[in-house]
Known about the structure:
Blueprint: H1 5-13, E1 18-22, H2 26-34, E2 39-42, H3 46-49, H4 61-74, E3 79-83, H5 92-104, E4 110-114, H6 120-128, E5 133-138, H7 144-147, H8 156-172, E6 176-180, H9 184-193, E7 198-201, E8 209-212, H10 214-217, H11 239-251
Parallel strand pairs: 1-2, 1-8, 2-3, 3-4, 4-5, 5-6, 6-7, 7-8
Helix pairs in contact: 2-4, 8-9
Amino acid sequence: MKRTLTYLQQLKLTQKPIVCLTAYDAAFSFWSNQADIDVLLVGDSVGMVVQGHANTLPVTLEQMVYHCQAVQRTNNQAWCIADLPFMTDMTLEKTLASCARLLKEGGADMVKLEGGKRVLPAVKALSELGVPVCGHLGLLPQSVLKKGYKVQGRDKQAADQLVADAQALEQAGVDLLVLECVPSALAEKVSKILTIPVIGIGAGCQTDGQVLVVYDLLGLTPGKPPRFSKNFLIDADSIPQAMINYAQEVRARQFPAKEHEMAE
């Protein structure tokens, strides 16, 4: 069954965890469908795990369109989100044009923008045009040169600001929210306050769902893996089975376990 926003919203209402996984090509997309993954994220993380860059900043809009096309050729089930790459949202006009390409050429179901207050005008405009939008708060990979890779929202002021940003994004029209690398208690609070589904990564197990980079799931990411990840291939006899095990553990709220949570 093809996943829809209504379907994802119903999962939140019935407290059934949403299973999300990144995908960048047709093969991983196909096997994600076989594993009954709810959401595929064509992330600009492709710049790091596939292209070998130090961060996501070099990824272009043309590359994102290309990877969306590849994923959607074999995806007939999952809801597909595409990242809006770095500096393709400098103006409202450019943001709308970039999102149009991801939807019309790439075939994505939803676009994802990083940030809070800065992206509110774009979110509102896209929502009014009928475009499904996913927000992204916490650790923002596109801001890594300024903020680094570290847990966000640790102190009260930062936590309060994140909650305010999340509420503002929902009011502006965001339909889904990704929370990355924030304390589990804060992620749980945001998930309960918002009426839209909240997907966590490095944010504990009490969000409405989980997302993981497929290369982390398979232990393929070069170097030291993120603390919040888990190599599901170790206890599986194949890549498809590793994906199935991931989906089962997310739905049972067994992943992430305590040892995968970020420091409070």
